[in-house]
Design brief:
By secondary structure, this protein is α+β, with helices and mostly antiparallel strands. Helices cover 38% and strands 25% of the residues.
């Protein structure tokens, strides 16, 4: 499956999108793109380490699926960036967004990402 068009499609959702990555279940980056004109807040090594941690947290959250239900998405608000993580069946989608976007718009972005990645 070609992942570049999916990642590009995710980045086109909103002008405030910064970065999008599709990660395998082991935490390896299958495809990632930083939006043109944006600069990364992390080094490549830090980004790779973070993606490994995303996969680890997914496994940890899975143990609560039976009692609490499946994770809909993960939303982290930081001073410099918003991080959103979505869990399709076989991959993990990780995106960063400008933090000043309205919360309602962020929720719309989550739903659009889920629609665009349902095949993963």
């Amino acid at each position: 499956m070609h992942l570049i068009p999916i990642v590009e499609d995710i980045l086109s959702i909103d002008p405030g999108m910064r970065f999008a990555a599709i990660i395998d279940l082991k935490g390896n980056i299958s495809e990632a793109i930083m939006k043109e004109g944006k600069t990364s807040l992390k080094t490549q090594r830090e980004e790779e380490h973070f993606c490994k941690q995303v996969a680890l947290r997914r496994k940890m959250r899975k143990q609560f699926d039976k009692s609490l239900g499946l994770v809909n998405y993960v939303h982290i608000e930081r001073e410099k960036v918003t991080q959103i993580i979505v869990y399709p069946k076989r991959k993990t989608v990780y995106v960063t967004i400008e933090p000043n976007i309205d919360i309602k718009r962020k929720l719309e972005i989550v739903e659009l990402i889920k629609k665009k990645t349902v095949c993963l």
